[in-house]
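Marked as duplicate of an earlier ticket. Keeping the data here for the record.
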Amino acid sequence: MAQQVISFHYTLKDKEGNTIDTSRDKTPMSFLEGAGQIIPGLEVELLKCEQGKKTDVTVACQQAYGERDDRLIQTVPRTQIPSPEVKVGDMFRVGSEQSNRVVTVTNLTETEVTLDANHPLAGEDLNFEIEITGKRDATEEELAHGHAHDGDGHHHH
């Protein structure tokens, strides 16, 4: 069966029902099946849906951003932090081009900074409201490039 390109609107909510992220006021998100562009647990569910379907999907953290890993939390001397104005909740990239990660400052003392490299949504089950806006076979070009091409003029209704 041909790989699919699926376009969808989503609203992501936390367990309290607060909206974390949504595509509602933007263009629908598109992805190429099997290309690893969206979290695995969501892709599995979207592939089961027909175009036009609206559904709620809960993705367990293992199928989303994984469990929290305490080994990704480290305390470094404050002198290593580029910004003197650093505060708890700040996020910045660390590392080389190949392996940069986003870290969040979780604790500060006068001499040390605690950095957490876990994804902010690690350990969270994610609740999505989904609406499938498009579903079609991927083009040769998309398969060659490994991602969906938006706005290619091929809108299937």
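See parent ticket for discussion. The beta strands are 4-13, 19-22, 29-32, 54-59, 73-77, 91-94, 101-108, 112-116, 126-137.
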